[in-house]
Each structure stands twice: as structure tokens, then as C-alpha cells.
Amino acid sequence: METIAKTRSIEEILGKYPGRTRSDLIPVLQDVQEEYGYLSRDSIREVSAYLGLPASKIYGVATFYNQFRLSPPGRHLIQICRGTACHVKGSQTLLEALERELGIKVHQTTKDRRFTLDTVACLGACSIAPVICIDGNFHGRVQLSEIPEILAQYE
Ligand code: FES
Description:
Radius of gyration: 17 Å
Helix content: 40-55%
Strand content: 5-15%
Bound molecules: FE2/S2 (inorganic) cluster
Number of helices: 7
């Protein structure tokens, strides 16, 4: 299971951006999400106050870029590689199979909060494409038929 370390407070994260400019928004949101796994209502409120931007603007940005999550991720984070090598080896078909198997779309979390499904750019393991990374564990040369067996490893 992926452990999301909450070692830095929001204040510490915001302190890295003393310029408080509008262009800090996306890096700040990326930083907050990296630390907490998602953008909570409270964190958005604090970012809004710090950068002097309306919360509605921040929600607009967070929903426009699908890299951001507004609710906590599931216990296991599935990242399916959408890089070129994996695409050529059928990652789109794997993604669709995962969506069917889990009953969710990409960037969503299952109702039981067991899995969150995300896509990523090249994971740097093109020689074993197509690659699925779950909680940091790489599964390479994944065949459609192996998906249930792979998911079963993550309760
Ligand atoms: S393209 Fe998937 S690991 Fe490089």
C-alpha cells in the first residue's frame, strides 16, 4: 500500500513560493497533492489566501488539469503508462480493461476506496512495455488476461 507521507505542513509548502505570483499556482497545487495525495477543501482555502486568488479560480484550474485530485486517493494507486512504447504495445486496451474490471474511469477511485486509476507519461521502463505501476511496483509486458491476477495482489 502506498503511504502518503504528511511530513510538510501547508505553511511549509507555501513558504517555498515567496513571490506569491499567479504562476506559482500549478507548482503549489502539484506540491500540495504530492504531499497529501489530493487537494482538500482546506488546502485550497489556504492556497487561495496565500496567493490572493479566489478559491473558484483554483477549483477551475484543479478540475481542468486531470492530474489533480479533489478527493483522497484509494489504498492502492494504479498508474498505467501512456508513453509511446507502451501505447504501441497496447496500453489503451489495458486501460479500458482496467476501467471495466474496476468499474471506474481513469482518475477515479473505486467505491470501496481500494484502487485509484491514473495514467502517467513514460515510466522509464519501455523495454518491458506495456507497463502498469501499482504502489510503485512495476508490472511489465502485461497481458490482458493477467489483469485480475495482478489486481488480486493488492487487497
Ligand atoms: S513508454 Fe511506458 S515505460 Fe516508457
